[in-house]
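chain below, 151 aa
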Amino acid sequence: MTRAIFPGTFDPFTVGHASIVRRALTFVDEIVIGIGINENKNTHFPIDRREEMIRHYYESEPRVSVQSYDCLTIDFARQVDANLIIRGIRTVKDFEYEETIADINRKLTGIETILLFTEPELTCVSSTIVRELLSYKKDVSQFLPEGMKID
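prediction:
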């Protein structure tokens, strides 16, 4: 069985996340979406609300679960018995950074990382931009996965 983690400080509106999860489910048996707890990171929603929204979005997909974590990604992978890490990328700069991290993780743990690009139309939109729009009460529905609503 292939169990993958999709880690990060993961807001429900992280740009492109739904397509990355959908594509990953074509080659893995199960995905644990990891919500990294980072006290220093400014997020739009508290951790429990983020978990609730993501769980609700994936409630009809039994192969997806959600869990918060407060450790290194490689330690989280070990905690949930994952044998693969999925990372979403939008830009070449993201790719270069994530490729370096993937190489380090592989050397430290033997766990492989698969890098998946988000859809081309979302490459110029970051989650930071979406959070900024939300703070000004702007409509961000065009950037959300189909069927996801933010209350």
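The chain is about 35% helix and 20% strand. The chain has one domain: 3-143.
thats it, cya
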